[in-house]
Amino acid sequence: MDAPIPDPQFQARLLVKEIGALTGEPKNIVILRALEERLPQAHSPVTATERAQRILNVLETSLWQNTSPSKLGGSIPREREDEILGYGPEGV
């Protein structure tokens, strides 16, 4: 699907139809499988602390290991910060 559809019920019907066409399953099975896949997540919601820890783990194990120590933890000049954020003499 290319553009978002404003009506969630219509969008859900399109998704069910598309998945059914791809898998060859009837619509009720498509919906049942989706609910079954979602159920474990509903039983064990992730807290904000757990989510933050997961993000930190990803950063520590992938991104930070591939970044030079000289680039980590340092500050950047205000002018560079403004440039990154898109601020200029006229504002944003």
Describe the structure.
This protein is mostly helical. It is built from four helices and no strands. It has helices at 8-23, 27-43, 48-63, 78-85. The two termini are 33 Å apart. The mean pLDDT is 83.
Relevant terms:
single chain, 92 residues, mainly alpha, 4 helices, elongated
Number of domains: 1
Mean pLDDT: 83
Net shape: elongated
The share of residues in extended strands comes to under 5%
The structure class reads mainly alpha
Taken in chain order, the helices and strands follow as HHHH
Largest sheet: none
CA radius of gyration is: 22 Å
Distance between the termini: 33 Å
Number of strands: 0
Low-confidence stretches: none
- Count of helical regions: 4
Q: How much helicity do the residues have?
A: 55-70%
How is the topology of this model organized?
Blueprint: H1 8-23, H2 27-43, H3 48-63, H4 78-85
Structure described in brief:
The chain contains 4 helices and no strands. By secondary structure, it is mostly helical.
